[in-house]
Design goal:
Elements: H1 2-17, H2 26-33, H3 37-73
Helix pairs in contact: 2-3
Length: about 70
C-alpha cells in the first residue's frame, strides 16, 4: 500500500511539473531566444516529444519482463 502511494505521488509530480520544465540544450536555447515565441515553443515541444520515446521503450521492456517472470512463476 505504501509503495502505491509513493508511485502515485511520483506520477502526479511528473505530470504536473512537465509543463514548467524546459528541455532545451544551451545551443538550442541561444538560437531560439533570438526568434519568436511560437518557434521557441515548437522547438521545446519537439525536444520533449523526442525525449519521451526512450522512456516508453524502456517501460515496455520492463513491463514485458515483469509479465514474463510473473507467468513463469505460475
Amino acid at each position: 500500500m505504501f509503495k502505491n502511494k509513493i508511485f502515485f505521488s511520483f506520477l502526479l509530480l511528473v505530470v504536473f511539473t512537465s509543463k514548467t520544465a524546459f528541455s532545451q540544450c544551451a545551443m538550442c536555447k541561444a538560437v531560439v531566444e533570438s526568434g519568436d515565441v511560437s518557434m521557441a515553443e515548437g522547438v521545446n515541444n519537439g525536444i520533449t516529444y523526442l525525449m519521451v520515446f526512450p522512456y516508453l521503450l524502456i517501460g515496455v521492456l520492463f513491463y514485458t519482463l515483469y509479465r514474463y517472470k510473473k507467468n513463469f512463476k505460475d
